[in-house]
Design brief:
With about 375 residues, the protein is an all-alpha fold. About 75% of the residues lie in helices and about 0% in strands. The protein has one domain. It comes from Isoptericola hypogeus.
Length: about 375
């Protein structure tokens, strides 16, 4: 169960013990996290609120990783540094990532979501279902790698970078021989994550600029505009930036609609995990570390996420604790994204970027059009 939960996993001990092995990589990720959060705060103060610190973390990680190169690089100094930090970086990209997803559940309250009424909840459900299914189908039609298609579909239909992070935890559980048939294993997955996060940022920023103007041009009420923005824009920060330019009433509705989408993260991730587990069982493939595949198909961190949602919904924690948990969740996500970015293959990502870019554009059109149609039909 510990391996499945992903919160207690540590590298196998070698020289000096597990903690000593982890320290260089964890220290690197921690230092980068501090720099990134300070930088994101400066950007926010300058009015660039649509720039997610998670995306900045992945970009910085990719830059640092490109400068250091792989452990087999001819530059001895860089190679030794990379080899020393690799265990800790791997631990951060897996364990810290999943801990962040669990804490994300403390931001969600089921009673708040139900406050949207059946019409608002239906708008969110229809938008998420249609966007996710259509994006997956378009990804297959465009011959986008399956992992990229799944991450893009999750990011655009649910909640941007956080949803991409959660689905990454599921894809990491795939057996080594079932990674889209591409060489590189985990490195290929990091490229998929980078592509999905880039698309969420690009098209989410376009939505922030375009959708409030369109809402006014279409004559939408504050409630209609808030539901539309909350059900279609990717990142929470992007939703706040977009709806805040409409009205305070639209912002309140948009925020709750966005949280309703986040609630759907757990069943979506669990469903994907069950499907991947069944496919692995049919092929008889073992876990990535060679051990027999466990019977529990749903990742433990998803169960932790649901437990956190229940705690928040029951009002068991004071507001100060919930606010602190939200800040800690952001810190964990930033560190994990930096760790994932260290393994991104930038040249390969640039060579394969055109089809994912088209998929992102199509998904943006689907989520925007579906949510608008649902709002116009259901919300007076």
């Amino acid at each position: 169960m510990d391996r499945d939960l992903g919160l207690l996993a540590v590298p196998r001990p070698g020289e000096g013990g597990a903690v000593t092995i982890l320290l260089p990589g964890v220290g690197l990720a921690a230092a980068a996290t501090v720099v990134l959060l300070v930088g994101a705060g400066a950007l926010s103060a300058a009015g660039l609120t649509t720039v997610s610190p998670l995306v900045l973390a992945l970009v910085l990680g990719a830059v640092v990783g490109s400068l250091l190169g792989p452990a087999s690089a001819p530059e001895a100094g860089a190679a030794r540094f990379t080899a020393r930090t690799a265990p800790g970086v791997a631990w951060v990209s897996r364990t810290v990532l999943r801990a962040g997803v669990v804490l994300l559940g403390l931001q969600l309250s089921v009673p708040d979501v139900l406050g949207l009424g059946w019409r608002g909840v239906t708008v969110v459900l229809v938008t998420v279902a249609v966007t996710f299914a259509t994006t997956l189908s378009l990804g297959r039609w465009l011959h986008v790698p399956p992992a990229t298609g799944l991450l893009v579909a999750t990011g655009f239909s649910i909640c941007g970078a956080a949803a991409v992070s959660a689905m990454t935890g599921v894809l990491e559980r795939r057996p080594a021989g079932a990674r889209d048939g591409r060489a590189g294993g985990p490195a290929g997955l990091r490229d998929d994550v980078a592509a999905a996060l880039a698309l969420v940022t690009v098209y989410g920023t376009v939505a922030v600029l375009a959708l409030p103007w369109l809402a006014g041009a279409l004559g939408l009420s504050d409630r209609q505009a808030g539901l539309w923005l909350g059900a279609s824009v990717q990142e929470v920060a992007q939703v706040v930036a977009a709806a805040g330019t409409v009205s305070s009433a639209a912002l309140a509705t948009a925020t709750v609609a966005k949280l309703a989408r986040v609630v759907l993260l757990a069943p979506l991730v669990a469903g994907a995990s069950v499907l991947l587990a069944r496919r692995a069982a049919l092929t008889g493939a073992p876990e990535p570390d060679g051990t027999p595949r466990r019977a529990l198909p749903v990742p433990g961190f998803v169960l932790g996420f649901l437990a956190a949602v229940a705690v928040r919904s029951l009002g068991l924690l004071p507001t100060g604790v919930l606010d602190a948990a939200a800040q800690v969740s952001t810190v964990l996500f930033v560190g994990a994204m930096f760790a994932l970015g260290l393994g991104v293959d930038v040249p390969r990502l640039a060579r394969t970027g055109r089809r994912p870019l088209l998929l992102g554009a199509a998904s943006a059109v689907v989520v925007t059009g579906t949510s608008l149609a649902a709002v116009l039909v259901l919300v007076p």
